[in-house]
Design a protein that fits this description.
- The chain is α/β, with parallel strands linked by helices.
- The chain is about 35% helix and about 20% strand.
- It is built from nine helices and eight strands.
- Strands 1-8-7-6-5-4-3-2 form an eight-stranded parallel sheet.
- α4 links the parallel β4 and β5.
- The protein is globular, with a radius of gyration of 16 Å.
- Bound molecules: D-xylitol-5-phosphate (DX5) and zinc ion.
- The site of D-xylitol-5-phosphate has 22 residues, from β2, β8 and α8.
Amino acid sequence: MFKVAPSVLSASFAKLETEIKAVVEAGADLIHLDVMDGVFVPNITFGPMIIQQMPRFEGVELDAHLMIINPEAHLQSFFEAKVDRIALHVESTTHLQRHLRLIRENHVKSAVALNPSTSLRDIEWVLEDLDMVVIMSVNPGFGGQKFIERMIYKVEEIKEMIIRKGLKVEIEVDGGVTPENAGSLKSAGMDIAVAGSAVFGKPDYAKAITALKEA
Ligand code: DX5
Ligand code: ZN
């Protein structure tokens, strides 16, 4: 079984506290936080100051996805905001391995996200430094985009790489995940499904999360 991480990008920002509480009660395993700077991606969302004020629930990790340039300049603020996972984009930074080590030293799970056009070769030599890989199945920047089907092969390939190296790295898939493609993604090796519109875009969050998990 895979975990479901609803993305608050598709929630009502005016009611973040109630929205997060509602998806936790509906069975969310993690809360996915899309941090956007308007430079790395076209949109601007929120940062550590808002995250710091988000409600916490036992056993439900806060999963920060940083779509910002020079993420290293802000890592300390995210540590202080008490997130459980931090994903950096491999395309956004130069000294990736150094930053991943710093994340782990601060007792936060380290992750790398890859745009659809980025090769898995770019992260092959940092796999040992990772707790999670985020395979983007849309070009980041917006919720509700169409899933890029061939990313299923990328999930298969990274799964093989992880097994070959005997590592325990979780695979998260982000973008356009629905009950229609979640089954194939699970077979390919997905451990965590990010779901924005597939959860917050539905009237009944519990039904939406169950529909994904039963796929
Ligand atoms: C895209 C974000 C995703 C987004 C997913 O830039 O990284 O996390 O919220 O939304 P859906 O599930 O609607 O594609
Ligand atoms: Zn995301």
